[in-house]
Amino acid sequence: MGILQGEHKLYQFLTHRRGAIRNGNIPKQQHSVKLSIITQFYPPDYAATGQLIEELASQLRHYGMYVHIFTGQPGYAFQKESAPSEEYKDMMSIRRSRTSRLWPKRIRGKAVNGLLFCVRSAVHLLKTSWRGDVLLVTTAPPFLPILGYLINLWFGLPYVCLLYDLYPDVAVELQVVPVHHWLVRLWDVINQQIWKNAQGVIVLSPSMKQRIVAKCPEVADKVAVIHSWADPDIIVPMPKQENWFAQKYKLVDQFTVLYSGNIGRCHDMETIVEAAELLQNEPIQFVFIGDGAKRQACEDRIAELGLTNCLFLPYQHKENLPYSLTACDLSLVTVSPGMEGLVAPSKLYGILAAGRPVGVICEERSYLRQLVEEAKCGASFRNNDATGLANFIRRLASDSQLADLMGKAGRSYLKSNFTLDIIAQKYSEVLLGKAIVTEPEPTPQTPIVVNQAH
C-alpha cells in the first residue's frame, strides 16, 4: 500500500510532463533546495561547459539540492544524434528542448539559435513547477542572464549568473561589432542591471572579475571567482605504451604535443602551427582534437606549408578523455590577444589531472601565467612566440625526467585546489546562501527515460 501511495504522489508530481514513467523507485522525501539550471549545452553534447554542469549538478545533490536542468538537444559539435527529451535520476531532472541549427557555422547563426533557446527557456520558466527556489543561468548562450533578470522581476526568483565568457566584449574583440555600436552600449547597460540585481555572480578567473568590477564597481562584493575543475580519480596518468588511444594513432614512440578542445576564434592556433613548422624535421608529433571556427584555416595552413607532423581528430566522447588526454607528452592551452579576462579555458584542468606538462600561450598579464608558475607544471609564452614554444618542446623531448616532474606537480596542484569536491563546496556557498528553502518534489532514484525527442 505504501508503495502504491508513493507512486500515486509521484504521478501527481509528473502529470504536467509528457510521456510515461518507467522503472522508477521513489526515495524518501526530505527538505531540500530546488535549484534550476538553464544551459544550452549538456551531455551527450561535446561542449565542455555542458559536461562541467553535469558533474556540478550531480555533486550539488550531496548538499541537499534537488536540481532541475533545462537544456537543448546535442548541437555544439553539430552531431545528428538526439537525447531523451526528459530524464529523471537521483535528485536530478533534465528537460531538453528542440535545438535550432540555423547557419550553425556562422556567428549570426549561433546568435539566432541562442536567442531561440532563450525564448524556449522563458516559456519553460513560466511554469511555476520548473522555477525552483534559486535559478542558475549560464552564458551559454550569452544573452541567457537577461532571462534571469526578467524572471526575478516577474516572480521574485533569486538568480545567480555563471559567466563563462564576457559579452559583448568578446564580440568587440573579435570585430563582430564595433566598440561604439549602439548594441554594445545597450548590452553593457543591461549587463550592469543584471549583475546588480543578481544574488551572486560567478566568474572563472580573477581577470574576469577585474573586467566586471571595472564596468560596475557596485557589484565587487557579490562576484565570486570559482575555477573550473577536473576529476583526478577519472583522469589518471597513464603510460603511452599502455594507452589504447596512443596505440591507435601511433603516438607511442614519438614525443606528442596535444591541443584538445575548441579550435575557435578566441584561441591562438597560429602560434602552434608556426611552432609545428619550426619542428617539422624533428621526431615530434602535433595532435589537434576538436573542432571550431579556426580548424579549417589551421588545416589549410598546414597543407600549404606541407607539414606532415600534424594530425587532426574529431571531438572525443567523454569516456575517451582519460585516454586522449594522456596520449601525449605535453598539452597546450591558448588564449588569443585581447581575450584575457573575457574567456577562461576549462581544458587546463583536465591537463593537470592527466599529469602532463602544460604550455600556455597567452598575454603577459594573464592569470594563467601565475597559475602555471605556482603549480610549477609547465611554461608560458607570449602570443606569436613560436620560437620559445618550439624550444620548450625540444627541451621536454630531450628531458623526460623534467616532463615527469612538471606533470606530477600539476596533478598535485589540481588535487589541492581544483577538484569537484572543492569547487562544488564553493558553488553551494553561493547558491545556498541565496535560496529560499521549500519542500522538495519527489524524484526517482534510478534513471527514467521519457519521450525520445527527434
From TrEMBL:
<keyword id="KW-0808">Transferase</keyword>
<feature type="domain" description="Glycosyl transferase family 1">
    <location>
        <begin position="241"/>
        <end position="412"/>
    </location>
</feature>
<dbReference type="Pfam" id="PF00534">
    <property type="entry name" value="Glycos_transf_1"/>
</dbReference>
<dbReference type="InterPro" id="IPR028098">
    <property type="entry name" value="Glyco_trans_4-like_N"/>
</dbReference>
<protein>
    <submittedName>
        <fullName>Glycosyltransferase family 4 protein</fullName>
    </submittedName>
</protein>
<dbReference type="GO" id="GO:0016757">
    <property type="term" value="F:glycosyltransferase activity"/>
</dbReference>
<dbReference type="GO" id="GO:0009103">
    <property type="term" value="P:lipopolysaccharide biosynthetic process"/>
</dbReference>
<dbReference type="Pfam" id="PF13579">
    <property type="entry name" value="Glyco_trans_4_4"/>
</dbReference>
<dbReference type="InterPro" id="IPR001296">
    <property type="entry name" value="Glyco_trans_1"/>
</dbReference>
<feature type="domain" description="Glycosyltransferase subfamily 4-like N-terminal">
    <location>
        <begin position="52"/>
        <end position="228"/>
    </location>
</feature>
